Amino acid sequence: MFLEQGIKPENKFWKYLVGSLFIIAASFVGQIPLTAAVFYKAFSEGKAFPTTNDGVMKMFESNITLFLVMISFVFALAGVYFVVKFIHHQTLLSVTTARPKTDWKRIWFSFFLWTFISLLSFFIVYISSPEKFVLSFRLIPFLILVVVGSILIPIQTSTEEYVFRGYLMQGFANLARNRWFPLVMTSVIFGSMHWFNPEVGKMGNIVMIYYIGTGLFLGVITLMDEGMELALGFHAANNLVGALLVTSDWTVFQTHSIFRDLSDPSAGIDVILPVVIIYPILLFIFSKKYGWTNWKEKLTGNINVQEIQ
């Protein structure tokens, strides 16, 4: 069982706090190239050092910015591996899945399913309101984005999944000895990590329903499927398709995507729709394909420590 793989007498919760600090520190080390590049550009061009995140994001061409920002996730993922192996004495597989090996068919099924739904959703919106979008496709920058994004964006999304649905999910299970507490805590923390995204400032706090709801959805499919392969595929598709397909002036990243969204940001049904309609449909599809049963026990039940030991 997925959560039970991390339940060990020596896995005290303080180790997860120390491990989390180590992963954060590794991420900060990974930000050194971006910081150094910003300092160099500001000094060489006689510009003031940017004091806002938006200022930093706009200092370089967007593909370069994407590359520099994503480097931190490479370091953070290495930090996850170090912490899991040397602090908790587990394998990376044990925080990935309860199966004997990672099921790549699950990853790809989830990836292509969400890619299809994302493209279909965009097509419907585009057909209904084409004036909100402008074609911004430029071949060479887009091809560079495809290469950089296809390599680094899955690393970014996988890092977040290993931290939240893998490492911290098992950590909170060690603390609470049940399933609902890890599910709720990782969902809230995951959503809160997006609090400072420019989307929140533009659309208001209501957009947090989407972020926390997405974290809850990813946690549910991880617990029900006894592994996070489906979450890995979904998250990679969500971020990669978003980066390649459409961007806007008010999102975290401005990329050389195919389209640019010209509409004013507003939180409406598009924020609630995925959480209350689309995600339940995905849960239904996954449950039928993989034969999920016993939902209440898997999502809210207690963990029998005696049986594990």
Give the helices and strands, then pairings.
Layout: H1 13-30, H2 32-44, H3 53-57, H4 62-87, H5 104-128, E1 133-135, H6 139-176, H7 180-192, H8 198-203, H9 208-225, H10 229-245, E2 246-247, E3 259-261, H11 269-290, H12 295-300, H13 305-308
Parallel strand pairs: 2-3
Antiparallel strand pairs: 1-3
Helix pairs in contact: 1-4, 4-6, 5-10, 6-7, 6-10, 7-9, 9-10, 9-11
Estimate the global geometry from the Cα principal axes: globular
Estimated share of beta-strand residues: under 5%
Number of strands: 3
Task: Kindly report the average pLDDT value.
Answer: 93
Order of secondary-structure elements: HHHHHEHHHHHEEHHH
State the distance separating the first and last CA atoms.
Answer: 13 Å
Count of folded domains = 1
- The neighbouring-strand order within the major sheet is 1-3-2
Number of alpha- plus pi-helical segments: 13
The Rg value, from CA coordinates, equals 20 Å
Spans of at least 5 consecutive residues with low confidence = none
Instruction: Describe the largest sheet.
Output: 3 strands, mixed
Structural class: mainly alpha
- Oligomer description: single chain
Domain CAAX prenyl protease 2/Lysostaphin resistance protein A-like: 142-241
Transmembrane segments: 21-43, 63-87, 107-127, 139-159, 180-197, 203-223, 230-247, 267-286
Pfam families: Rce1-like (PF02517)
Keywords: Hydrolase, Membrane, Protease, Transmembrane, Transmembrane helix
